[in-house]
Amino acid sequence: MAASVLCRRTAVLHRHFKHISGSQCAILLQTAKYNPRPLRLNLNEPYVPDKDSTKTPEWQKTAKYDAKLYGRYGSASGLDPARLWPSHGQLDNIITEEKEWQPSLEVMLKNIELKEKEETEKRQAKERLIAANMAKMPKMVADWRREKREAKQKQKDDKARREKLLAVARERFGFAVDPRSPKFLEMVAEIEKEDKKKKKLMKRMLKGEQAAAPVTPPAATS
User: In whole angstroms, what is the distance from residue 42 CA to residue 77 CA?
Assistant: First the structure.
């Protein structure tokens, strides 16, 4: 069983490498032979930069680099680990940052609870708004239909009035008049003025009739 599996794998590799060119095969062999040397630490003479030297880069004079050296060489670096410990101010900053970006489990649970409560309130407010709008829907539909009927009736009345004015103009001038002509517009203004006078006269007559009507006294109660 193992021999048959090994034969199949060998055949697959043979077919795969059969299509590879010579240069590609050389690159593959060179990559396969690459064996990097392990990093050897010289604990007897570790590299510790001279901070007083002007040739030492600035980034090698920082406390961060000292911590890196102590982490690599330990006590062989000659560094005092007490100096690498953060100060009180740095500790306060670290604690504040951890509280902000890495809150405790209690704070995380409280934040989750507040978030769920806020989402629930938003959902309930949305549901109440939808319910209120659905309750108003019959009235809104009725108002829309009424406005549509009124607009249609107004359009019909305007058309009838326009045709009536055109008929009056044709009868007055003896020929069809363009509704945009000055003659037609003057005639319309004159007719509207007469209609206003008639309405005022009708109001006066109604007021006169109401004033002249006898007022019957209320019946006396025994």
Answer: 10
